[in-house]
Amino acid sequence: MAIITVQNLRKQYGDKIAVKDVSFSVEEGEIYGIVGRNGAGKTTTVECVAGLRKPDGGTIHVAADLKQQVGVQLQESAMPDKLRVGEALDLYASFYANPASVTELLDEVGLDPKVGFAKLSGGQRQRLSIALALVGNPRIAILDELTTGLDPQARRETWDLISRIRERGVTVLLVSHFMEEIERLCDRVAVIAAGTVLAVDTPAGLISRTGGVQRITFRSTMPVESLKSLPEVHSVTVEAGQVTVTGDQNVLRAVVTALPDSAISNLKTETSSMDDAFLALTGE
Amino acid sequence: MAITTPQVRRLTLVETKLYLREPAVIFFAVGLPIALTLILGGTIPDFQKPDPELGGLRPIDTHLPGVMIILSVLTCAFSLLPTVLVTYRERGILKRMSTTPVSPGTVLGVQLVLNVVMTVLTTVLILVLAHLVYDVPFPQAPLAFTGTLLLGMVSTFAIGLLLAALAPTSRLVQGLGMAVFFPSLFFAGMWVPQALMPGVLRTISEFTPSGAFGAAMIDLLATGGTEWRHLVVMAAWGVVGAVAAVRFFRWS
């Protein structure tokens, strides 16, 4: 059953249309991604869902108490410098009727309750922000650009944290412009561009829409011109001894069958990624 | 939301802790006015001379504590209160709170109460210490004195809130606050007592919130009464400031 339903959402600031026509629905317990470039209308969309902005058109239905059961992590939100981690969580826990255990949450995000906000690193601030979004024991967590500005290590830790959130049965609405994050975490994704939804699918579904193009590269001691005649192959290029072949899902098998093992070295394959899928969808 | 709910109690506790963790806050709002009262009162001989025009009272009985109490109120009104609120808005704290069951208006309320309590505490300390050290008499009309003090806070805090509503950044609100703070101290008689100001300047002073506040406080310390027009000026600024602040204030 859908826990969030958005239909024909429209929002403008003065003359500027931030969201033109966005519809999607989120099922209970899934991690739902909203992806798009900067300025595509992602943040405005989720801020309307969170009740922070009033839509100019369309309907939003959230099957939960917006204040009590929806936890929100906003882009670039900070705390007072001298507020300690534990104090922040205790304070926000006191706001809710049925809060989570602050001790368990601290353990989960791996933060020291005695450290002041000013002394936290970017990753720690982001984890505090997520913990604050979860401290009310929400049914829905809305997370906006949660790994922007984090180093790869901090980013991976944050992703692990989000996966654990799902295990608690929390529905997550995740805004991102980071494809690896979407591919790794999301059950379904809505791709937004210029305030409209271009596609809704699973990450794998979006990737397969690009035709499942595969790219393989290798070095060869034998001529490779003959590969062009194989039905699985789309193109063959040779540059400084490096051969690049693109083709359909069976191109790898076709190439290694056509050439003797001894002729091939440094073989690598690349499957088209969310990045390719996103670029194909948004027309670039 | 009732002030007895656990949310508001917790918020008050946390905001008080944060307030007290800024040593500068305690210094400027509490320490400085008290220290200046004691030091200036003891080192400038004129402050201790009985003035026939004040019925034999000394400036240390009237002008000095009056102006120092206003120094504390203005520090809170034009510096501490607007800076905290704009910083909270700038950092998205107010916006974040508006996604929780507790309204960000509660933070504003807690901050107002905190600053009122700080200035009342400073006022009591100034009066008690000046009484103990320099034998300064307590206000003859405590109720009228307290009422005027609170009215002075309403008028200056309302302007402080208006500054917080108009300034988009914490840096700007600090600058604006100082630009209002120093002239306000001047009009209150910090450097030149209103009684010694030239006629026009004195009239202008009496129409500013801090000038009316200063005139009323010094009157009350000297005679136990003051003129209605001072109270009307303060109330008018309070209403205008508050209405404009409500009109322009943004949570995010």
UniProtKB/TrEMBL annotation, chain A:
GO terms for cellular component: plasma membrane. Transmembrane segments: none annotated. Keywords: Antibiotic resistance, ATP-binding, Nucleotide-binding, Transport. This is ATP-binding cassette domain-containing protein. Gene3D superfamilies: P-loop containing nucleotide triphosphate hydrolases. The keyword ATP-binding applies. Residues 4-219 form the ABC transporter domain. Its main location: membrane. It comes from the Bacteria. It is found in: Cell membrane. One of its GO terms (molecular function) is ATP binding. It is a peripheral membrane protein. InterPro entries: AAA+_ATPase, ABC_transporter-like_ATP-bd, ABC_transporter-like_CS, ABC_transporter_ATP-binding, P-loop_NTPase. SMART domains: AAA. GO terms for biological process: response to antibiotic. It holds the Pfam family ABC_tran.
From TrEMBL, chain B:
One of its GO terms (biological process) is response to antibiotic. The chain crosses the membrane at residues 24-44, 64-86, 107-132, 144-165, 172-192, 228-249. One of its GO terms (molecular function) is ABC-type transporter activity. InterPro entries: ABC-2_transporter, ABC2_TM, ABC2_TM_bact-type, ABC_2_transport. It is found in: Cell membrane; Membrane. One of its GO terms (cellular component) is ATP-binding cassette (ABC) transporter complex. Residues 24-252 form the ABC transmembrane type-2 domain. The keyword Transmembrane applies. Keywords: Antibiotic resistance, Cell membrane, Membrane, Transmembrane, Transmembrane helix, Transport. Signal peptide: none annotated. The keyword Isomerase does not apply. It is a multi-pass membrane protein. Belongs to the ABC-2 integral membrane protein family. This is Transport permease protein. The lineage of its organism: Bacteria, Bacillati, Actinomycetota, Actinomycetes, Streptosporangiales.
